[in-house]
Specification:
The chain has 10 helices and 13 strands. The chain is α+β, with helices and mostly antiparallel strands and 326 residues long.
């Protein structure tokens, strides 16, 4: 009997991703995958849905779409300190475009192989372009980084250079492309090819009290930690990490700061560290060759506050960031 077009599509582009791990007893090709979690580990599971035109511009290269579809999910595992293991993939496609699928599969596969992730199932349907990815990972019992474990007195850190992806997005939606070496080209790469901080998340187990990945902007994502940990925070405006490319693309330090606080799509890690563990963070930054910036402190008083260079403290509730541009 001939293969169905759907099964042939899966075999042609994705079958080789299913044979990467010994804990996959049965992967792609049956009604369910059969998987064997290691003893003493909790299973961490997350799922994201990406829609064309909303989560990535329509002209995003297929290779970048494949990378990003997996990266944003691996970032969720990183925020929990979990090790990636398995992934399922759902594709809604307007039509079977083998050229696009080849690029998508290569981008997806390159990142999957980097993190030793096995594709163990999924589905394809005809419809508007959308990608649904579910990842599964392992974390030792009781060792997961959770949003509800931060405490007043903890220092607040962020990895990398957040804000760059958000700065690129409006330009990309207008169809703009930067030249070689330009700020737009640099920031567009951050938008299309986010780096899930899996190694950092694993290293922060036992060091950080809580963590979250920056998908919706530092201001909003920090709010999730504060709400679930029942505390507040003060951010030091002068300590926010503003890259030269971010400042160049947004036009000013003030605009760059607002983009960092309000923008999303960076998938850096925001994490809280008890004072006794801060020295360990400096060592981690050197070992991982990744900038880790101390940007504030958690406090008993609820709410988020911003301290300017003059020492004045302002409320960061609602949309009240504009007055810092004056």
């Amino acid at each position: 009997m001939a293969q169905s077009p759907e099964f042939a599509l899966i075999q042609r582009h994705f079958a080789r991703l299913g044979a990467a791990r010994r804990d996959v007893t049965l992967g792609v090709g049956d009604d369910c995958a059969l998987l064997t979690p290691p003893p003493g580990q909790q299973l961490a599971v997350s799922m994201d849905l990406l829609l064309a035109g909303r989560h990535f511009p329509h002209d995003t290269p297929a290779h970048a779409v494949g990378h990003k579809a997996l990266a944003v999910n691996l970032s969720d595992l990183a925020a929990m300190g979990a090790e990636p293991a398995w992934v399922t993939l759902g594709l809604s496609l307007p039509e079977v475009d083998d050229h696009w699928l080849e690029g998508f599969a290569k981008g997806f596969a390159a990142l999957a192989e980097q993190h030793e992730v096995a594709l163990v199932g999924g589905d394809t349907v005809r419809g508007p372009l959308a990608i649904s990815v579910q990842v599964h990972g392992f974390v030792e019992l009781g060792a997961a980084l959770r949003r509800d474990r931060a405490r007043p007195g903890d220092a607040l850190y962020v990895s990398g250079w957040p804000g760059e992806a958000a700065a690129a997005l409006p330009h990309r939606l207008r169809g703009e492309r930067g030249g070689a070496g330009s700020a737009l080209t640099h920031c567009s790469a951050r938008l299309d090819y986010p780096t899930p901080r899996v190694g950092l998340g694993h290293a922060l187990r036992g060091v950080a009290s809580a963590a979250i990945d920056l998908s919706d902007g530092l201001h909003g994502d920090l709010g999730h930690i504060l709400e679930q940990s029942h505390c507040g925070a003060t951010l030091e405006l002068e300590a926010l990490p503003l890259s030269t490319q971010l400042i160049a693309l947004t036009g000013s330090v003030e605009a760059a700061r607002t983009t960092l606080l309000r923008g999303g799509d960076d998938y850096e890690l925001l994490f809280c560290v008890p004072p006794r563990n801060e020295e360990e963070v400096h060592w981690l930054a050197e070992r991982l060759r990744l900038p880790l910036h101390r940007i504030g402190t958690l406090e008993p008083q609820s709410g988020l506050r911003l301290r300017g260079a003059d020492g004045q403290i302002h409320s960061a509730e609602g949309g009240s960031f504009d007055h810092f541009s004056h």
